[in-house]
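Hey, weird one. I pasted the NDP-hexose 2,3-dehydratase sequence into the form twice and got a warning about non-standard characters only the second time. First submission, copied straight from the form history:
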Amino acid sequence: MSHATLTRHLPSSLEAARRFARSAQVTESWVTSNAQVDAWLAEQHRSNPFHVARIPFSRLRGWRFRPDTGNLAHDSGRFFSVEGLHVRTDFETGGSWSQPIINQPEIGILGILAKEFDGVLHLLMQAKMEPGNINGIQLSPTVQATRSNYIGVHGGRPIDYLEFFTDRSRAEVVVDVLQSEQGSWFLRKRNRNMVVEVTGDVPEHPDFRWLTLGQVDRLMRVDNMINMDARSVLSCLPRVPETGGAADDHQAMLRASFAPDAWSLHPDAVILQWLTELKARHELVQHQDGLNTVKGWYRDEHRIAHESGKYFTVMAAEVQAGNREVPAWTQPLVEPVERGVTAFFTRPIGGVLHLLVHARAEAGSRDVVELAPTVQFEPVNYADLPPGQGPRFRAEALSAPAAQIRYDVIQSEEGGRFHCAETRNLIVDVGGSFPLEVPPEFVWMTPRQITSLLRHSYYLGIQARSLFAGLQSIS
C-alpha cells in the first residue's frame, strides 16, 4: 500500500477525536430529533413483531449433536458450534475445569457508518432484533454480521450497507481493529470493529436512522437500549472531550483525563510491560474436546446445564422475526443463570481521574489475559463462598453508596448467541482515600491510556469496552 493511500484512509486520530467530541456535544439534531428517535423506536417495536420460543433440541432444524463427540453443530459446518473445552491456568487463584463453549472461528464485521451533516458527524444506527434480546429490538451498528451471514450461507437477503465496509473506495476508514468477545462463553472469538466515514449519498432504509454521538450517548444511559456490538464499536471511537461546560467537578476531571497530554500514575510503557509480563509469566492451557467429555455438566431434552445450578445453560430456540435477513429459524443459545455485575472504580490521582483495571483470564481468552473492569462476576457463582473469598472488591461494588455511583445501567450481552443475558454496569467514584497500592493483577489507568490501547487488538475485553463506552457517554 502506498503512503498516499494509507494517508487517505487513516485520517488524523487527533482531528477525528475532536470531530467525534463535537458530535458528542450535539444532543439534538435536525436530521433526527430525539422525539423522532423515540417515536421511530416505538414504531419499530410495533411494526416488527417477533417471537422466540424454547424448544427441545430435537426440534432444531439444521443443527444436531454429533454422534462421535456430542458437539452441537450446524449441518453446513458454518455459523458456530457448541463444544467441550478443558482449561488449566495458574493465573490468580488458578485451577482447572471443563465446560461447554461456543466455537465460532470466523471473523464478523461490526461496523458503524459516519457522515457529516452541517458540520456535525452523525452515525447510522440500526434498530435490530436479536433472538436473545430481552426486549427484542435494540440499537445496533450499521452492519452486524458474521461471515456466514454476509456471504449468504443462511440463504437470506443481502446485508444492508455492507458494501461501505468491504469496498475501500466507498468510505474513509476511521477505526478498523479486531476485538475479542466474551471469553467465558466464546473460544478465542473476535470481530472486526469498524467505523468508516462517507461523504456521498447513502440510501435510506426504515430500520436505520442518523444520530449524533450526543444522541447515542443519551441512549447509552437507558437500560437495554444500545446493544453489545454497538457499545464495542463506540468504545473504539477516538474522543477528546471539550473541558468547558462540565456539569460538576467530577465530569470536568473526567474530560481532562482524555486529553493527549493528561498525566498518569504509570507511564504507558510501564502499563504495557506489566501486561506483557503477566501474559509471559502465566499460562492458560485450552484443550478442545467433545461435549460428551465435559465433567460436571449434563444434557437433557431441553438444556445443557451444570450440576450445581451455577454458571449458564445451553438451550434451543425457535425464532420468528419480521426485520431480519431470514424471517424464521432455529438455533442454540447460551443463557446465564443470573444477571452479571461489572464495575469500574474511579478516583483522582494527581488531579487526573484514573480507573482501576483488572487483568483477567477467561476460559476462551486468546492470549492468557485481557484487561477487564475492576469487578466482573455473576453473584450466584460465589454465593456459597465465605466472606473475603471470590472476586476482589465485589463487596465494595455491591455496597457502594448512591452518591458515589456515576453510571448505573443494565445492558444486554450479544443477543445473537446469548438469551436474556444482562449485566449491571457500574462506574463508582471511590474517592481519593481509596488505596493507590492494589493487588498485582490490578493497575490504575487514565481514560487517555485506555483509549490508546483500544486502537489495538486484544488489550481490553468486551466487558471493559462496554463499560468504557458508558464512561465516554457521561464525559
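That's the output from the first submission. The warning seems to come from a hidden character in my clipboard, not from the data itself. The chain has a mean pLDDT of 93.
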